[in-house]
Amino acid sequence: MSRDGSAWQVYKRLMGFARPYRGLLALAAVGMLIEAAAGGAFSKLMEPVVNETFIDRDKAKSLLLPLAIVGLFVIRGIAGYITDMGMGKAARSIARDVRVNVLGKYLRLPGLRFDTEPVPAMLVRLGSDADQMAQAAVDAMKVMLQQVLQIIAALVVMFITSWQVTLAILVMAPPLAWIMDKVAKRYRRISHRIQESGAEMMQAADQTLSNQQEVKVYGAQQSELTRYAGLANANLRLAMKVEATRSISSAMVQLMGSVGLALLLFFAGREAMAGRLTAGGFVTLMISMMAIIPALKQLTNVQNMLQRGVASAQRLFSVLDAEDERDGGSRALERSKGLLEFRDITTRYPGQSRPALEGISFTARPGTVTAIVGRSGSGKSTLIKLIPRFYEAESGQILLDGHPLQDYRLADLRRQIALVGQQVMLFDGTVAANVAYGELQGAEATAMEEAVRGANAMEFVQEMPERMQAPIGNKGGRLSGGQRQRLAIARAMLKDAPILILDEATAALDNESERLVQNALQKLMPDRTTLVIAHRLSTIEHADQVLVLDQGRLVEQGTHAELLARGGLYAHLHQMQFREGEAG
User: Fold this and answer.
1) Quick one: residue 478, left, alpha or beta (phi over 0 = left, psi -120 to 50 = alpha)?
2) Long-range contacts formed by 273-279: CB under 8 A, 24+ apart
3) Which of 83, 256, 478, 569 is the most buried (most CB within 10 A)?
4) What is the SS3 assignment for 110?
5) What is the mean predicted confidence (pLDDT) over 156-179?
6) Is 514 within 8 Å of 506 (Cβ atoms)?
């Protein structure tokens, strides 16, 4: 398909988002027609104004005609208001619909998408891309329709006044259409690159500002600033190409407009000499022509808005068209027993030749703790992400209660799992809203308080003036790391899921916080299938089995004592950590 054909397909799809607002758009279209008709009527009214007032000097009509002009502009103003409100409401509603649809889609995409597309790029799509798409769908259409109707109204008036002069001027139409087509193609080429450039700038700024402490400590301010300035300069160059295109195209349209005016003067003069055109008729032709020139200039400028919107729409459609997480299971699952079996699991990341995990087999039984250890990059986090199906295995099977995970509906499967990670994600809201989160929202206050108490979080919650209703700030910014961890454990306790996944839950805590968190975890673990990625000895020593991963393979498996006696990789890792502990 050609680029133009592709853009037209995108625009047609874009207009599909306007379908729910057809009533508003129809009302706005009526307003536009009245506006254009009033504009044309004003131009035509100039003929009697000149002839009756200045040539025939009709006193009665010289009083009536100014009142008629005021009346026309009142009608035009009302029609313009109806157009602006109808189109504005439709455009903003479309932007809202797109944002909601795209965010909903992101939440249905596989976990791998979030490894390949940075969150700042997602925010650009939800922000400026959605606005520009709505501008293309409605605002650009509004400008185009308004100006096209104004041109048509002016041409109709000119034809009525003198069809001979109008036909002579229309020889300008083909070269004008050619210029506008060239401008459209150039805008389309640049618009896509501008959008990508904006996303790169936002991503670079997000990285720099999010890691400002490291940037300052390692003296990287200048290198980060240089990198950002390079991206900003590239964005500026693209923006200037757009400005140059707009300016040159406007100048060309105005030049052609002046040629059109010159032709008008020449042919109108000849018609007047032949007695076929009055002075009033000439003024009407002149005013109509003067109305057409700015309308044509507006049409060339709207190309920029339109092509930016089409480029944004393509980016948004690439999200909306992406494949959802696979969710084809139909087996009902109320509450699982928690028996997990990994059978010869192999998985790899897209574009990677070496598997992230290879040939992994083990069983995690209800009421037991399985500790997963290994060097950084050995595949520990990948392994636990397979259980809620954030990632999918390339080969092998993971069974829950004797059935493959794919047999269950995703929502049912994830209902069986509570997750406490190293990076706790809390949301801007109250303590209660963060503990009773998502499907837990209907939890009773007593159950919620019991969970908070069990997680050793009540001691700091009680100190807050609003207690359970205390706001905790964006991402839990008003709480310490240990307090955030304990709220996450309270959330897991309230969920009371049969499978508990702990991803280095105490790795970043001080000793006192770690003791409180460990104590809370001890209350949370019994009667569940617990899988824990652990660095701390205390967690590993009490595990029922320890899995030792190295470069994606399960190299050792057994209890803490058995693996120490074996003298392999686990014993080496244990010795290294023991030395670090002693040194500390």
Assistant:
1) alpha
2) 276/162, 276/164, 277/161, 277/162, 277/165, 278/47, 278/50, 278/51, 278/55, 279/50, 279/51, 279/54, 279/55
3) 83
4) coil
5) 76
6) yes
Q: C-alpha angle 169/173/176, rounded to 5°?
A: 125
Cα–Cα distance for residue pair 269/312, rounded to 1 Å: 50
The pTM of this model reads: 0.64
Closest CA to 454 of 495, 510, 499: 495
Question: How many CA atoms, within 13 angstroms, populate the side-chain half-sphere of residue 258?
Answer: 5
Strand-pairing partners, residue 69, are none
Residue 107: is it exposed, middle or buried by C-beta count within 10 angstroms (0-12/13-18/19+)? exposed
Q: What is the pLDDT of residues 459-514, one digit of tens each?
A: 777 777 777 777 776 666 667 767 777 788 788 878 888 888 887 655 555 566 66
Chain segment 196-225, per-residue pLDDT in tens: 787 788 888 887 887 778 777 778 788 888
> Quick check: 388 and 462 in contact, CB under 8 A?
no
Q: 139 φ, ψ to 5°?
A: -60, -45
Average confidence (pLDDT) over 549-578: 81
Three-state DSSP string of 73-98 = HHHHHHHHHHHHHHHHHHHHHHHHHH
DSSP 520-559: HHHHHSTTSEEEEE--SHHHHHT-SEEEEEETTEEEEEE-
Predicted pLDDT at 62 = 67
Q: Which two tokens stand for residue 193?
A: 């690159």
**Statement: residue 1 has pLDDT above 50:** no
Residue 322 φ/ψ, nearest 5 degrees? -65, 155
Q: Among residues 49, 66, 67, which one has the least CA distance to residue 58?
A: 49
Q: What is the CA radius of gyration of the chain?
A: 35
Q: Which residue reads 């290294």 in tokens?
A: 576
Does the pLDDT at position 91 exceed 80?
yes
- Indicate the SS3 state at residue 404: strand
CA distances from 191 to 237, 253, 306, 308 (A): 12, 22, 10, 5
In degrees rounded to 5, what are phi and psi of residue 425?
-105, 110
Place of tokens 């652990």: 534
CA 125 vs CA 133, 144, 153, 270, 305: distances in Å: 10, 25, 39, 58, 16
